[in-house]
Amino acid sequence: MKLTSMIAIYALIWAFSVFLVLPFGVRTTREMGGDLIPGQAESAPHELHLGRIAVRVTIVATLVFLLFLANYEFGWLTTDAFNGYAQRAVGTT
């Protein structure tokens, strides 16, 4: 696999990992014992720690990317593993 392909795939996995990591560890203002500001959503975080979130996302994305890369190298899961896909690719139904 080319380096540019690896970088692009890692960037996609990193962006996807943001949505996996973001909901965990969030404390709302109400959970922290604070008062809501008029117009503030009840689900809004009390404090947003972007650095901590970025580190968590990077760790998760790196682990997922390493699994993807290992699968690419060793072929653990191929398109033949999915029912019916190989038959349609050949042209039979």
Strand count: 0
Distance between the termini: 32 Å
Range of strand content: under 5%
How many DSSP H or I helices? 3
What is the makeup of the main sheet? none
Percentage of residues assigned to helices = 40-55%
Q: Residue-averaged pLDDT, rounded? A: 86
Overall SS class: mainly alpha
- What is Rg? 20 Å
Order of helices and strands: HHH
The domain count comes to 1
3D structure, described in words:
With 93 residues, the protein is mainly α. Helices cover 54% and strands 0% of the residues. The protein is built from 3 helices and no strands. Helix 1 (3-21) crosses helix 2.
Write the layout of secondary structure elements.
Blueprint: H1 3-21, H2 50-74, H3 85-90
Outline of the structure:
The protein is an all-alpha fold and 93 residues long.
Pick out its properties.
93 residues, mainly alpha, 3 helices, 54% helix, 0% strand, transmembrane, transmembrane helix, membrane
